[in-house]
Amino acid sequence: MSERRATRMLRGVALLVAALLLPACAGLPTSGDVAVGLVLGESAADVDFLPVASGPIQGAGPQEIVEGFLEAGITTSDNWATAREFLAPSLQRSWRPAAGVSIDVGTETRVLTSSVPADAVDEAESADVQVRLDLVAIVDEAGAYAEAPGSSPTMFALERMDDGEWRITQAPDGIVIDEPRFSNVFDGYPLQYFDGAWSRLVPDVRWFPRRQSPATTVTQALIDGSPSPWLGPAVQTAFPADVQLAQDAVLITDQVAEVALTRPAVGLDQVTLSRMRTQLQETLKAAGVSVSQVRFAVDGRTLEAGVVELVDMPADVGTLVLQDGVFGRIVGDEVTAVPGISQGIVAIDQPIASIDVAVDDSHAAVQLADGHVYLVGEGSIDELDSRPGLIEPSLDPYGYTWTVPAGEPGAVKAWGSDVVEHPVANAWPNASAISDLRVSSDGARVAAVVTVGQQRWVVVAAVVRDPSGVPIELGDVKQITLISAPATGLAWLGTERLAVLVDPQGPQVLTQMVGGPGAVEAAPEGAVSIAGARTVGGLRVVGVGGQLFAHAGSTWREIATGITVLATRAGE
What we know:
Residues 200-304 form the GerMN domain. By secondary structure, the protein is mainly beta.
């Protein structure tokens, strides 16, 4: 046995281990044009071209063949044709690169071990090579991303072919890519699903190989697939199970997406067809596809389909603060009162710890320094929850105020505007503590920072509601990312990302995609609270001295002082 660390930077990527453990689902789409694509929110002008890996080098030994094979996985064109050149003919036909992706720390951390010493390669006819990876995350066959840190070994079997060259005869399905280059090869696409009331759309981010036009990829994934298991209890799709794509292509002409469906679509009613069209149109737009409408057809005949009305997102109202005894929106040095609630908030004669304002500005959930939570409306102040140890409350878009004690994560309650409490079942069953909780703008998801064992996790769960919109229970917990220091704030940034303020001693802001990777940046010194927004650029942070900070490129800029409370808005 000979062992060495693969120290040279691999030019590409490919196969893997954990892929053996990945569940079989809808499959990573590999049809359509494979070229460059867009990340979430990126413009076409920002796209980099994909790197191209080379095929096998003549005379390469078993370890070099495995290294080259892993390299070639980064070249996705022609269904990973370059990577298949490293395989024996029999394996070329059966290997399934689209079975999943294993993402490791980097090429320099990979350890290769061969069963044949370097000085005996010329005489050997077969060899086994083990690759040990330091995993970060995996992407399953349906394109769903999940953190999966840990060591992951896998075996490759190789044989010398008739021409004297070594080729791989046994390898796991799927590819492996190092974390720094993952986003150069794959893009995240937010598939859209309806909430339980058919009134809002909820994103479910999936990762597929980068393409200039991902129309076919996301349409296949939406129509032929299903929501992620953790999200499933809170969402639904308009596409019936027996309706599928009739052609493996979606053509776009003059911003009209032509979608051919199988014959069962002919018998669908207008409401279902309209929901289908709305769901697919919004998915294509979220994926960066320039479309004005979707047109369905069966056997060449167009199906008439309208669109359904969705709940409008409220206008971005800017930053809400309590400053010098005045509560409202701050612009420059001026704070403008919010009609109906500002007067009630400033009339409170006790110190205020947090304020969360409803989507329609009709009321606010206010927590005082003693921990008690109140609902403030026009001419009314009602106590909701006085349990000891409450964390900051969170309003949802249905008008319910969520409260929970830090030491009792399972004791979540949702309070209606009528001051009636509704216990929320199945809340964080494995957690021993909770520090932060925020409901998303669609009301179908709730994020939290919880302690499980000795670990702190940022997690999400689906919100299950009854027909009247009352939250009654949470779905299974989806772990998003592990954090190494206490969190002091949690916020939503748009519909796909979370912002977490961590480590009071050396504050940082973690910007984390729900179903994707994250990024960390330094926060202003002394940062103590955070408020979300529709975009990353709208994020606001307050320091211990009352300074209000906003993003200014890659740095933070002080934009106001004297802030007593940085308020939040429901869903952010």
